[in-house]
Amino acid sequence: METFEPNSFMNKLKLKEALFLMTQGSEATADTVDQILAQILPTSDNKNTMILRFKKTILQVLSAGKEAIEVNPMPGLAFRGEQATTFRIERTLDAHNISFILAPNADKSEIHLAVEVDPPASLRVKLKLDGDTIETLSDLRKEKMFDAPITTETAPEVVFFEQNKEIGRFHLILETD
After folding, report:
1. Contacts of 28 (CB under 8 A, 6+ apart)
2. Going by DSSP bridges, is the β-strand pair 111-118/96-104 parallel, antiparallel, or unpaired?
3. How far apart are CA 175 and CA 42, in angstroms?
4. Which of 62, 94, 103, 106 could form a disulfide with 112 if both were Cys (CB 3.0 to 4.6 A apart)?
């Protein structure tokens, strides 16, 4: 059984199936019920919110429990007459160091997102926009960048899974100056 997804038809179907099977046989033990609920219901302590303010040449990052930090662009490839505008934000999730690499376009209307993990791990990552899963990276060892850009008009969320169990999610709030 896959873990919780908000507004998911499949989770409702799985719950109805479990209830039907319980009516056909004996009642599930308390341990079995707890195990099923742990797989379906989200864990609240693995949800993180980051406010990302794109200013002219820097990125300001605000998150709960941490001071506001200003991130300078990573040195790298830039077209002649333009500045490099790729930013790297690092966060810890369980025993993994997660790096979010954000590359906004010139007018900051679209932002391309890549995710890296250290040490390399076989994590599955979903990009959700306004609660709907838009894209899934099935293994972070093999793929790191989402094809779909995110915008300031959407509510992007990045959800991490390890062995089909949700280990954390990052809600990104994007602002531009």
Report:
1. 18, 22, 36
2. antiparallel
3. 27
4. 103
Provide, for the chain, the percentages of residues in helix, strand and coil under a 3-state DSSP scheme, each rounded to the nearest 5.
15, 40, 40
Is residue 99 within 8 Å of residue 89, measured between CB atoms? yes
Q: Where are the alpha helices (DSSP H) in the chain?
A: 9-24, 30-40
Residue with tokens 């941490």: 66
Question: How far is 119 from 141, CA to CA, in rounded Å?
Answer: 10
Q: Which residue has the higher pLDDT, 66 or 163?
A: 163
Amino acid in the structure at residue 12: K
The two three-digit tokens of residue 94, written as one number: 């369980």
Task: Dump pLDDT digits (tens) for 121-170.
Answer: 999 999 999 889 999 999 999 999 999 999 888 889 999 999 888 899 99
C-alpha 165/C-alpha 177 separation (Å) is 37
HEC-encoded secondary structure of 42-66: CCHHHEEEEEEEECCCCEEEEECCC
Q: In sequence order, what are the residues at sequence separation of 6 or more whose Cβ sits closer than 8 angstroms to the Cβ of residue 43?
A: 166
